Amino acid sequence: MKITIIGAGSIVFTKTILLDILSSELKGIEFCLMDPNEEKLISVKRFAEKVIRDNNCFASVSITTSQCEAVENADYIITTFQIGGLKATTLDYEIPMKYGVDQCIGDTLSPGGVFRALRSIPVIMNLAKDIEELSPKALLLNYVNPMSMVCLALGRTRVNFVGLCHGVQVTLDLIAGYCGVPKKEITFINAGINHMSWFLKLEHKGNDLYPILRDKFEKPEYYVNDKVRGEVFRHFGYFMTESTGHLSEYLPYFRKNKKALDLYCDEPAFGGESGAHVKWSQLVSKKLAESDILKDESTTIPPRSIEYGSYIIEAKETDVPFHFHGNVMNDGMITNLPNDCCVEIPVFSDGKGINKVKVGDLPTQCAALNLTNINVHKLTVESALSGDPEGIMMALALDPLTSAVLTLREIREMATEMLDSQRSWLPQFEGKRIEPKPTIIIAKNIKRAEVPVDPALAVAHRFGELIKKEN
Asked: Catalytic amino acids?
């Protein structure tokens, strides 16, 4: 069994996935690690071989900088790359901040998420082409963000894929703690889109947990832990799978001005702090540059992490179903979201592959909030695939946070600056630019052109003149 990891230079995540798979019941594994950074690959290979040797695992490890070599005859392909690294992430934050668009994470929606998708989609589509030619039966497990946009692009290929996130698992731990019941005893249904997926049902031994959860979020000592998610829950009625820092970027209510930021996003780090992801990335980058962090790592195989990847592979190989939540093309699974969007829904893996579970309608208000993000997903993917730079401006113009802060002219200027700063990672826009739209100056006493007038406007104008005369 050949398991390929594309972007294996992502040391921390690759280590987690390797250990998860080695702790499973899978045998005879050939790991193929691929990354342009050979130095990091050597470090990961050295660590993996020590783990395999010290634990007598029936597995082997090879490394390559060739994507074709890595993909050829692979059974499973795991993607975990980030195009542009820290430099691009910093630009994703700093340029919008100049214009007043304040991001905390910037990897899923908002200007940072849009440009991260524009950088990632050409790479994932190139990989998909190699998979179609060299390993057409392989299953692609995608961990690359922005999850919904990358998977939406993959949905236009013939590749078998599922996008994986740990939002459901982590949030369920939180709910279990709030409600005081064991996580394993909670029965739930969760569906929506990545990072905005709704718990439609929450029960413990047949009893609805929502009254307990609602009561907790009316108490300041609980509400303060997760203000944004708590506020959305209080006003829209359903708890969702994203924390305050992330969620504050996907809706227009929480980061549009200082008043909103001070009220909802005043917690440090990922509680809504401005630039939290950039600051964290800088610390990680510095640590990785200073030393080989895997050099003195223990080779003891720990219990498996919360990541789904190893369980999915194990279920497919053993034909013992594993139920999880994955990002897939909708195709009617959520009936009040577009068929051609990417959704996060219950799925299960078995010997037949990835099987989707039909959810039906989301509550109307939940679907409506999802749609505000899906509109941005679609426009971004279309722009990334077509190379039309106008699509960038339009995607940002429909982004909830950006549109709450900037005018259309300002959005166009910001999009232009971001595109120009990142051209080295955006080959699909080579030789293209976002056309400027100069401001039209209207003189104070301008004479209007003789054109047909909107009847409603004409009536309102006449009514206004009448009021003036009476006064």
From this structure: 166, 250
